[in-house]
Amino acid sequence: MAGVTTEVVDAGEAGMRLDRWFREHYPGLSFGHLQKLLRSGQVRVDGGRAKTNTRLVEGQNIRVPPLSDEARATVKASSAGDNADADALRGMILHEDDALYVFNKPPGLAVQGGSGLTRHVDAMLEALRDRQGRRPRLVHRLDRDTSGVLVVAKKRSSAQALAESFRARTTRKIYWALTKGVPRQAEGRISTWLVKEATADGDRMRAVRQRTADASHAVSTYTVVDRVGAKLAWLDMRPVTGRTHQLRVHAAHMGHPIVGDAKYFDVLNWELPGGIQNLLHLHARRIVVPHPDGGRLDVTAPLPPHMRQSWNLLGFTDETGDALEA
Q1: Which of 63-67, 99-103, 166-170 is the most confident on average?
Q2: CA dihedral of residues 71, 74, 75, 77 (deg, nearest 10)
Q3: Pairing relation of β-strands 282-290 and 147-153?
Q4: In this structure, are residues 79 and 129 in contact, taking their beta carbons and an 8 Å threshold?
């Protein structure tokens, strides 16, 4: 059992409740045990007694009493992490600095848990706890079968700044998609309301033109980058809002669903071109967002193998799509 230690509240923890601070730094310490330590005065903030709901201020000193090896070892174990998850995440890194990670999420890996899911990015982040026990935080998400740029904050202050950027729509997100057919207009704006419906195959979103009580407004823009006759189109798609399945629903709403979309591609008697895999062809290509520490973060993700195969087969070149941003 280690002796008394003193920890300093950092800038990213300002405003955090004391019990939340302990949960992040000492996950093995139960809430009940923490309450006993507080009642007996063994845990103190700047030398004074505190409660579980005490809000912390940057620079404050937290007295941590002797804790069992189990309470302390939990942090050490989780910071070392499961080697497989840590190695997998590190293999996805496109960018890393003191504030955040940017991963190139592969298709098929869920960002968050759900029915029947045991492995997902959110759980894997346990393997990247830092020496202070802080766990990286999700600030946005991608659909399970969508690949590409995924930003994860390393600390609370970064998560708050990034979340605010997403809410304020000061973030630019560029997706590449391969669709059935070619939109009549070379570029356009799609504005609908989306409602969730329960189906035999699980929940799905449906685009409606008029607002209802349970509908959310969704806006996307698109540009046709290249095409293969009238059969296939490469679209540069950009969500203005951030609704569930938004780009997939909007592509289908135009009459040009995304190739390989098991949920929204419902065109009968359409044959997949030879050499193209029946996997979702939607990739988060690039993100541009204000960096929490100043300046701008601008990261691009290479295509996943199945889309690279399709692009090579169809004669598409990345430079053509990237030139839209030049």
Answers
A1: 99-103
A2: 150
A3: parallel
A4: yes
By residue range, what is the domain housing residue 152? 81-168
Q: Is the pTM of this model over 0.85?
A: no
259/272 Cα distance (integer angstroms): 8
Query: How many domains does the structure of the chain reveal?
Result: 3
- Point out the domain boundary residue: 62, 77, 92: 77
Q: Model confidence over 214-224: pLDDT tens digits?
A: 899 999 999 99
Cα atoms in the Cβ-side hemisphere of radius 13 Å centred on 201: 5
Say which amino acid occupies 78: S
Task: Please pick, among 46, 87, 143, 318, the residue that the annotation labels catalytic.
Answer: 143
CATH number at 39 reads: 3.10.290.10
262 and 182 within one domain: yes
Indicate the SS3 state at residue 300: strand
Residue whose tokens read 């419902």? 266
Query: How does pLDDT run across 168-197, given as a tens digit for each residue?
Result: 888 999 999 999 999 999 999 999 999 998
Q: Are residues 56 and 181 in the same domain?
A: no
Give the number of other Cβ atoms within 10 Å of residue 34's Cβ: 19
Helix (H) or strand (E) holding 60: none
Residues 6+ apart with CB under 8 A from 48: none
Q: What's the DSSP call for residue 262?
A: T
Residue 143 is among the residues annotated as catalytic for this protein: yes
81 pLDDT band, cuts 50/70/90, is very low
For residue 105, what are its two tokens?
């999420």
DSSP tag of 55: B
